[in-house]
Amino acid sequence: MSKATKWVLDPSHSEVLFKVKHLMISTVKGEFRKIQGEVLSNGADFSQASVNLTVDASSIDTNDTGRDTHLRSADFFDVENHKEITFKGSSFNKLDESNYQLKGLLTIKGIAKEVVLDVEFGGINKDPWGNEKAGFSVTGRINRKEWGLNWNAALETGGVLVSEEVKISAEVQFVKQV
User: Which of 49, 45, 14, 23 is nearest to 169 (CA)?
Assistant: First the structure.
């Protein structure tokens, strides 16, 4: 890559969300409110870009204080001992004009596993203040148990309280650095 272009995450125009089945009948969603990240690209060409994202694990918000406290505990994210969730991209491959496949290491609770995410490139545009911005939609699925997020409860009707599969989605906007 020639001189890399640095793009920094705009947290006020970005979100990292997750959804998980509850009681096997409905979906609970949540988000992480404090995120940072950067992309190094070859200008406006994002094929083979370098991608890094850091999430403050304690910033989890599911709109329920009790559930959020439990998710911060050692049963789940153990935020006292593991303050950050990180993603370090290993490849960012262009599939067509607006779609990419992003592979990388997702680290939760000190456990790093490779994940594959689908990325849709929304484009590049300038805001009213002249800042050049790039937007992406990211989706994927993980099995939370692979990262030691094992807590669950059996239901008397069969099944479990919280599914193992977690759907991840993010809407992220990056600002080009000059």
Answer: 14
Residue 28 near residue 20, CB atoms below 8 Å: yes
Considering the entire predicted model, what is its pTM?
0.88
The token duo for 122 is 């929304």
Beta-bridge mates of residue 38: 8, 52
Q: What are 117-132's pLDDT values in tens digits?
A: 999 999 999 999 999 9
* 24-49 as b/e: b if 16+ CB within 10 A: eeeebebbbeebebbbbbeeeebeeb
Alpha-carbon separation of residue 80 from 35, 55, 74, 83, 149 (angstroms): 18, 14, 8, 6, 15
Where residue 144 falls (left for φ over 0; alpha for ψ -120 to 50; beta otherwise) is alpha
Model confidence over 88-105: pLDDT tens digits? 999 999 999 899 999 999
10 to 13, 43, 69, 88, 175: CA distances (angstroms): 6, 18, 27, 18, 6
Phi, psi dihedral angles at 18 (to 5 degrees) = -145, 155
Pairing of strands 111-126, 132-143: antiparallel
What tokens appear for 104 in the block?
A: 């990388």
Q: Which two tokens stand for residue 67?
A: 């559930």
Instruction: Name the CA dihedral angle for 45, 46, 49, 51, rounded to a multiple of 10 degrees.
Output: 140
CA gap 10, 145 in Å, rounded: 31
CA angle 104/175/123 to nearest 5° reads 75
